[in-house]
Design goal:
The chain is mainly α. The chain is about 60% helix and about 0% strand. It has a domain at about 5-165: Butyryl-CoA Dehydrogenase, subunit A, domain 3 (Up-down Bundle). It is built from 24 helices and five strands. The strands form two sheets. The protein has a three-stranded mixed sheet with strand order 3-5-4, sandwiched between helices. A two-stranded antiparallel ribbon has the order 1-2. It is globular. It holds the Pfam family Peptidase_M3_N.
Length: about 600
Amino acid sequence: MSKVITREQQEEKYTWDLQTIFESDEAFEEKYKELEGRLGEEVQFQGKIDSSEALAAALETERAISDEIGKLFVYAHLKHDQDTSNDTYSALESKARTLVVKFNTAWSFLIPEIMKVDQETLETWRQEERLSEFSFDLEKLNKKREHVLSDKEERLLAQAGEVMSNPTSTFGMFNNADLEFPDAVDAEGNTHALTQGTYIDLLKSSDRTLRQSAYENLYSTYGAFKNTLSQTLQGVVSTHVFQAQARGYDSARHQALSNNFIPEAVYDNLVKTVNDHLHLMHRYTELRRKQLGLDKLKMYDVYTPMIKDVEFEMTYEEAKDWMLKSLEPMGDTYLNIIKEGLDSRWVDVYENKGKRSGAYSSGTYGTNPFILMNWQNNVNNLFTLTHEFGHSVHSYYSRQSQPSNKSGYSIFVAEVASNFNEALLADYMFKNLEDTKKKLYLLNEQLEGFRGSVFRQTMFAEFEHKIHSMKEAGEPLTAGSLNAVYGDLNRKYFGDAVEYDEYIDVEWARIPHFYMNYYVYQYSTGYAAAASLSKQVLEGDTDVAERYINEFLKKGSSDYPINVLKNAGVDMTTSEPIENAMKVFESQLDQFEALLEKL
Ligand SMILES: [Zn+2]
């Protein structure tokens, strides 16, 4: 193992340039004081939103302060993440965080006060020129109005918030703090620590004894608490159902999807279209069974790589080259943004002592994007870098083209640009790699990515909707009924190549996303939209790429997420994008099988 260097030992050219935000810590402090002094400005607007002029002034003031605070916060959090053991910057970060909270609290009167303006008046105001940049935000507020209750009822619901969050916090404590698993044991009798963090890595092991041990130890532990965990899950589902009923929505799903104005047809369409293509998932599990040389596949065999002993090394310099070549179909402006990012130090490349783990893309209005990496010399890091640049380019275009209040993007579209980039990279690498084993390795990763993002998350989405519907129909959610629903779905998705046991039936008990109110389907729709769009770009001419840039990347949140995607070429209310994505998966299966013949 190479020794991890300190922050001071990093070569400057491989670190991000935060001086583009603030020249120095002193400049940060100055700005901080200035903004602290602006707390209190909100008072002049409180109780006085009585004209479109007053509303415009309030919204503009709030936006201006918010943009400045955004820069403070990003500077402090990036400085903190580059070395979390540096006390100066952890203090700076918590200082910035506190200011954000103070500011949000001070301005929290604004939305309720806008809602007090009657619907028609607000509708007239928002058509006026002075409110044009805020018109869409105000339209969305007006649309949500019918589900806002009286002041007294709203206060009561807000007060009940803490009680209603209890099932989720109880599950979180149990799952993260209290629950312990027996060690897993490998074929040689060595023990391996089994935790939430090590579980998937153990399942990727080529030692089948170890995989089985990890799988059985994990699920028998959850199984021992299945009654308690069915109660916490039941509790959170009840809260969703109660809130939807209290606010006059048709169902819990109706409320959850209304937040981003997503039609429920999108959800039903996803589930139906994925179900229509389960034969592809079954073909994949059968291929996996054969490739691993097993009579029957067990659920602990579904993560381990089908192609063994492939070293796919990659330096950062080589990776930049692959990434840029693979994105050529996007045209020069797109490529130049990425080149600028690489040349102007947007990326913090290598690991150092105290640096935050993982990878992300950050930044805010008025700064360039920043990417945190912990570079290791392998091809998976190339995919991570290309993924994060997808986020960065999306943010870059949106911030350049929209005012700050419309430059963000909703969670429904958040993973489209990143997965889009990865799809172009995979396609290019597949066409340009010589080595058959490396190609197979790559395809294996692609197939697994698709299984994990589309099939698995859709199965989760089906489960989530089923248990909410049961609750709404007055059916009890018990350990028995949850196991039965989950077990059936798992069998339906994985098909006949798998020999089932009762362990997997309780997998629902360990998935934190089921506490997040209709969240997971967006992983599937986002991935499918990206697969469909990248397919169009690869098969089309530069017009298709231009359309994706102009209608999607530059649009931020200036329109409903469904419309933004539709204008870019994917209508998520139809089955077409999911079908297109399935074609990509099918062709990868074909290629994988054809290449195996050559080995
Ligand atoms: Zn991402």
